Amino acid sequence: MTVDVLETILPRVTRPARYTGGEWNSIAKPWDSAAVRLALAYPDTYEVGIANLGLQILYSLLNAQPDVLCQRAYAPWVDMEAEMRRAGLPLLALESRRPLADFDLIGFTLPYELNFTNVLNMLDLAGLPVLAAERDEHHPLVIAGGSCAYNPEPLADFIDLFVIGEGEEVLLELVRAYQQISKSANHKIGNRQSAIGNQPGGRVEFLRRAAAIPGIYVPRFYDVAYNADGTVAAVTPNVPEAPARVVKRLVNPLPPPVTRPIVPFVEGIHDRGAIELQRGCTRGCRFCQAGGIYRPVRERPKEEILAAIDELLAHTGYEEIALVSLSTSDHSQIEEIVRELARRYADQRLAIALPSLRVDTFSVDLAESLSVGADSATPVRGRRTGLTFAPEAGSQRLRDVINKGVTEDDLLRTVEAAYSRGWHTVKLYFMVGLPTETLEDVQGIVDLVRKVREIGRRYQGQRAQVHVSVATFIPKAQSPFQWAAQATAAGLQPKHDLLRRGLRGPGTRFSWHDPATSLLEAILARGDRRLGRAIYRAWQNGARFDAWSEHFKPEVWLAALAAAGLDPAFYAHRPRPLEETLPWEHIDAGVDKRFLVQEYQRAQRGEVTPDCRAGDCAACGIRVRFGQIC
Amino acid sequence: MLQRLRLTFARGEEVKYITHLDIMRLWVRVLRRARIPIAYSQGFTPHPQLSLAAPLAVGVTSEGELMDIELEGRMATRYFLARVDEQLPTGVRLLGVEEVPPTWPSLQAAVRFADYRVTVQTAEPLAALQGRIAELLAAPSLPRQRLRLDQVRRYDLRPLIAILRLERWDEGQAVLFLRLQTDERATGRPDEVLAALGLAEAPRAVQRRRLLLAPPPPPLDRRQPVRPSRPRR
Question: Among A260, A461, B49, B226, which one is least packed by beta carbons within 10 Å?
Answer without folding.
Answer: B226
